[in-house]
From TrEMBL:
Residues annotated as signal peptide: 1-22
Keywords annotated in UniProt: Periplasm, Signal, Transport
CDD domains: PBP2_PotD_PotF_like_3
Organism: Pseudomonas fluorescens (strain ATCC BAA-477 / NRRL B-23932 / Pf-5)
A Pfam family of this chain: SBP_bac_8
Spans traversing the lipid bilayer: none
Subcellular location: Periplasm
Protein's name according to its UniProt entry: Polyamine ABC transporter, periplasmic polyamine-binding protein
Gene Ontology biological-process annotations: polyamine transport
Any single Gene Ontology cellular-component annotation: periplasmic space
Keyword Iron: no
Gene3D superfamilies for the chain: Periplasmic binding protein-like II
Keyword Transport attributed: yes
Length: 344
């Protein structure tokens, strides 16, 4: 009998969330507006762990934050092309999520991906495309090319937002000009700079803050922006005349991943949070909120009806989809110089 009780006690302990036995805090840094109050409340109710969320608006900003010591973050959500950089800079904790039961729920083509081939440092959180959203009520002309963004018609001039993320701006310009991503050719980068400088007089704002972009689109403060597919859907819910473009040059694709920064003070809580967000029902809550595509199998029964036929989430057949890449040091230096020049 005593053996049975001991066994039951051990089983009960093992069934409890690991984080409950540790400190009841978790510090997360993510893209702005990535977590609904509902999902954070659900996690806290299940585990007793209180989550504090800080935000950034570009991968470059996150990299700088972590290089400066991370200010006590336990979970971060960088885009896929920055994972190898963070690993190389020794800014991430290895926690081998590929060995955990929840990793089986990750869609097959995102398991052990090229940016983390051993599944040692990251778990996909959300993925999607980057293109252009525009106000179809203000502009009704051709929109099958990024030309509408870089050589905007009169009705869109001065009403454009571009991201202030160096890598994303350069990637989209590269796609339009048919230049390889992460080019280390100064002449090609000069070509990109020329395109962006010619466009600059027509750009009202440079911002990657999704909430502000949505609000400005809905209010008519801007009528065209670089944007992510799911964020465009959220904007369209506020202003039905908005449309997300699939230009003939293609669209960019990205995967944002959950990682544990080096020096996390609450690593057990971080692992519990990542496991929680990787469960299909919770991943569906994330997708219902953000509207991007989920990297987790089995979310369909939990999805809102509006996601099932949303044009922003269903890439037309034949569309060229280009995943952003991890650039070499030469490309990064050229990109930084280009950006400094453009922002003068």
């Amino acid at each position: 009998m005593s053996k049975l009780i001991a066994s039951l006690g051990t089983s009960l302990l093992l069934s409890l969330p690991l984080a409950v036995q540790a400190a009841e805090k978790l510090n997360v840094v993510s893209w702005s507006g990535y977590f609904s109050p509902e999902i954070l409340a659900k996690f806290q109710k299940q585990t007793g762990i209180e989550v504090t969320v800080d935000s950034y608006d570009s991968n470059e900003t996150l990299l700088a934050k972590l290089k400066q010591g991370g200010t006590g973050y336990d979970v971060a959500i960088p885009s896929h092309q920055f994972i190898p950089i963070l690993i190389k800079e020794q800014l991430l904790e290895r926690f081998d999520p590929a060995k955990q039961p929840y990793y089986a729920s990750v869609v097959d083509n995102l398991k052990n991906p090229t940016w983390d081939p051993e599944g040692a440092y990251s778990v996909p959180f959300i993925w999607g495309t980057t293109s252009v959203v525009l106000n179809g009520e203000r502009y009704k002309g051709p929109s099958d090319s990024y030309k509408v963004l870089y050589e905007p018609p009169a009705e869109l001039q001065g009403r454009i937002n571009m991201f202030d993320s160096v890598s994303e701006v350069i990637d989209m310009a590269s796609l339009y000009l048919n230049i390889p991503l992460c080019s280390e050719d100064p002449k090609q980068m000069q070509q990109i700079l020329g395109l962006l400088k010619a466009q600059k007089p027509f750009v009202k704002t440079y911002s990657s803050k999704a909430g502000a972009i949505r609000e400005n689109l809905a209010a008519g403060e801007i009528d065209m922006s670089m944007f992510w597919g799911g964020s465009s859907m959220r904007a369209r819910e506020m202003k039905p005349g908005l449309k997300y473009l699939y230009p003939k040059e293609g669209v960019l694709a990205w995967v944002d991943n959950m990682v544990i920064p080096k020096g996390s003070k609450n690593p057990a809580n971080a692992k519990a949070f990542i496991a929680f967000l990787s469960q299909p029902e919770n991943a569906a809550m994330t997708q219902n909120f953000l509207k991007h595509q989920s990297p987790i199998k089995g979310v369909e029964p939990f999805l809102d009806a509006g996601l099932k036929d949303a044009p922003e989430l269903h890439i037309p057949e034949g569309t060229k989809v280009v995943f952003s890449q991890t650039c070499g040091e030469g490309a990064i230096r050229l990109a930084d110089r280009l950006w400094t020049n453009l922002m003068r």
